[in-house]
Predict the structure of 4,4'-diaponeurosporenoate glycosyltransferase.
Amino acid sequence: MFSNAVWSWLAHALPRAAWLPALCAVVWTAIFLRTIPDLVRTPRLRPREAARASPEMYGRVSIVVAARDEREHIATTLASLLRQTYADLEIVAVDDRSSDGTGDVIDRMAARDSRIVPVHIGELPRGWLGKNHALYLGAMRATGDWLLFADADVRFYPDAVERAMAYAHAHRLHHLTVAPRLIASGYALKLLTAVYIFNYVLFKRPQSAYRRRTRAHAGIGAFNLVSREAYECIGTHRAISLRPDDDLHLGKLIKRHGFRQRFVVAQDMIEIEWYPSFRSMIIGMEKAPLPAFHYSAALLTAAMILMMALYTTPFAGAIVGPGWYRLLYLYCLVLMGILYELHAVFLRLPKHQFLILPLGMLLYSYAFIRSAVLAVRRGGLVWRDTFYTLRELRRGL
């Protein structure tokens, strides 16, 4: 009865033309209030704040790197790991069916330094995605109390592991994931990268992962530090054997099982060139979007239409909106601008690209809808040169 009375009052108080700007203002206010408190408090792990991490107290760290056709990057990544100041670590380098000589590079470096443990995979068993299987085998070979899952093209600063371990133990964490410094060349690539991360921050809310009573969780493939206790409790990578979004879902399972996790920004700790070009990012995103929408192309497309409306309506309304309604649209733009400014500062992305955010959202929507169309046309996804049918991927949900 009360809600009916409220809606009846609103129907009389607001002219019909005011509903769209009012709805827009309510939605962006809700997003702002849900996002901003934890976003401004997101920890930034700086060198001077990190205590010395003692392996005697914290235990051995096993860094598990899964590489497929990464000959161009793997030597640099392994060399940066060998320079780590943390005393007790091993590097499990997994060659996942590479055809470009990646395994040879790993073997040569392992022959020179015993901390590198080479693992070679010749065949992929049924029921597994290649990367997930490689990380699982690497974890099974690892001897550490902690497992650091990392991509094969990440460059680590010398004290990265030591700082992460000190932080994890200072805050009694079971899972620590780190946002790296992203290297992007080209204006369009920077714009698409910025929008991708902006949506990740707004809707996945990794900055709120530390809150026990929320569904927010975090996971980044470049740096997922997990205690062995937590990893084994969630069922290892077997529990996510067919998840293309393995890094994010690993964090989701850890959070669901009640373990403590946190997302931090440490751009002077690790860095990565996520994609070398705009075109490569469009292609690379073919595998990412559909799992979040339960492999439903219709659901994904509907979500993209709603998000396009959410992003473009304030800009259009502020320019052509009638009368005082324009103030509501300007209010929405202020909230959006504050959120974008914070995210751009954290990740060192171009702040002025906020002015063309609708264009960025259009590129983002195109990449997502394209991935859905291709998946439906092919009947599945291609990842690491292996085809997986939608039927078997849905079983992985």
